[in-house]
């Protein structure tokens, strides 16, 4: 009961101080409010962006490895000259891997022709990507169909002129009508539509099936050189779920070195790219942004902390005689100490809550007016409140300690 009474009295004293000195209090709390707003706003924006990017990365698959000429992560001292003479992944590499790989759900050879025009009678859609892939594309990539089906193994092997197209292309060509069974022109050849990808919308990494036209790789051989570097050939391998990524990568590396007949000690002439590379780069980048947020917000909080300490010293001075009366009536030193500590913490909490309120308004503006979804999660709310409590404790300790050490006689006489 004594503790609750102490908290109640401290809360009343804090409200009285705010009511009697509104301008002084607002100016003192401004530093805390700005600091909490800066830190939590940065963290909220970073966390939201990080989660959106991670969702895009996760679509690639945690057990998926891309065999390519160039390694991902070309930052800093990037020795690009080492990779210039590397061979592109070839259909032969794909066939050898498919025959010898044990821990794979699916293996596909892929190549993509960018910025193509797809035509149907008088309608056309520009900027489409013609994506050629072997039969296991449905095993190495995650997608859904809103209409029709995926092509069969026999259709892939025989190079049947068929395609599965993105929802945006189907909408542009057929205006919402049925697409399956109709013939469209892809790179000058007539192709029958057998399926339509479900509409996805573009994610943070720009990956989407909405403007893709997927054709069998053996049919694509008659349209463009699938081994040419300009078409970004790659081999995509999705490992078995029960096998670790490291084990899949190790098996792939051994098989590729064997296929390319590399001697022991000789460097790999291929890159095994995986989603963890992107995730690690994202972690590094966003860690730097968060540090910047701490630095910028920290200065505001530091100034705000001095403001709170100043208010508390003034409050102790104004209530010196009340402190003397309390001590003469038997109040212990810790009672006086905690009384002013609670008051400082409550003042900082008020500033912190104002900062969090401004962050919430900021998220609502971006979400509803600018159509950019930003979410203030509970973790950042708790962090903002925690920082406020810590700053209040630090700022209020010195004034509270000096108040608790006052001599009751001298305090009453003041």
TrEMBL record:
ABC3 transporter permease C-terminal domain sequence ranges: 295-408
Keywords (A to Z) from UniProt: Cell membrane, Membrane, Transmembrane, Transmembrane helix
Domain MacB-like periplasmic core intervals: 25-253
Protein's UniProt name: ABC transporter
Pfam family, one: MacB_PCD
GO cellular component: plasma membrane
Entry keyword annotation includes Transmembrane: yes
Family, similarity comment: Belongs to the ABC-4 integral membrane protein family.
Subcellular location: Cell membrane
Bilayer-crossing regions: 26-46, 291-313, 334-362, 374-397
Listed GO MF terms: transmembrane transporter activity
Topology in membrane: Multi-pass membrane protein
Main location: membrane
Highest rank taxon of the organism: Bacteria
């Amino acid at each position: 009961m004594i503790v609750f009474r102490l908290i109640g009295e401290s809360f009343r004293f804090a409200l009285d101080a705010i009511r009697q000195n509104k301008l002084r209090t607002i100016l003192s709390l401004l530093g805390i409010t700005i600091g909490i707003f800066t830190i939590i706003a940065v963290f909220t924006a970073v966390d939201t962006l990080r989660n959106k990017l991670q969702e895009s990365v996760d679509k690639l698959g945690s057990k998926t490895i891309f065999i390519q000429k160039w390694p991902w992560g070309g930052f800093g001292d990037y020795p690009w000259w080492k990779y210039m003479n590397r061979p592109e992944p070839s259909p032969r590499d794909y066939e050898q891997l498919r025959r010898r790989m044990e821990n794979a759900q699916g293996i596909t050879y892929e190549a993509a022709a960018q910025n193509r025009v797809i035509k149907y009678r008088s309608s056309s859609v520009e900027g489409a990507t013609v994506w050629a892939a072997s039969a296991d594309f449905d095993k190495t990539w995650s997608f859904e169909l809103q209409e029709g089906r995926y092509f069969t193994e026999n259709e892939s092997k025989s190079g049947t002129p068929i395609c599965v197209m993105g929802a945006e292309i189907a909408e542009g060509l057929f205006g919402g009508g049925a697409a399956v069974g109709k013939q469209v022109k892809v790179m000058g050849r007539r192709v029958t539509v057998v399926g339509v990808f479900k509409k996805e919308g573009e994610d943070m990494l720009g990956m989407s099936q909405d403007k893709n036209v997927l054709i069998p790789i053996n049919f694509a051989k008659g349209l463009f050189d699938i081994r040419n570097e300009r078409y970004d050939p790659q081999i995509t391998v999705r490992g078995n779920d029960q096998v670790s990524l490291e084990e899949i990568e190790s098996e792939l590396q051994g098989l590729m070195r064997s296929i390319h007949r590399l001697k022991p000690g000789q460097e790999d002439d291929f890159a095994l790219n995986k989603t963890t590379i992107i995730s690690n780069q994202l972690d590094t980048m966003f860690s730097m942004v968060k540090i910047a947020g701490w630095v910028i917000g920290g200065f505001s909080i530091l100034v705000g902390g001095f403001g709170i300490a100043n208010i508390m010293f003034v409050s102790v001075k104004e209530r010196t005689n009340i402190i003397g009366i309390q001590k003469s009536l038997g109040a212990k030193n810790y009672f006086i100490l905690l009384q002013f500590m609670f008051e400082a913490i409550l003042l900082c909490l008020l500033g912190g809550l104002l900062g969090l309120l401004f962050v919430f308004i900021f998220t609502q503006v971006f979400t509803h007016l600018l159509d950019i979804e930003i979410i203030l999660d509970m973790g950042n709310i708790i962090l903002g409140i925690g920082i406020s409590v810590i700053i209040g404790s630090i700022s209020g300790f010195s004034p509270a300690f000096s108040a608790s050490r006052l001599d009751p006689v001298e305090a009453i006489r003041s």
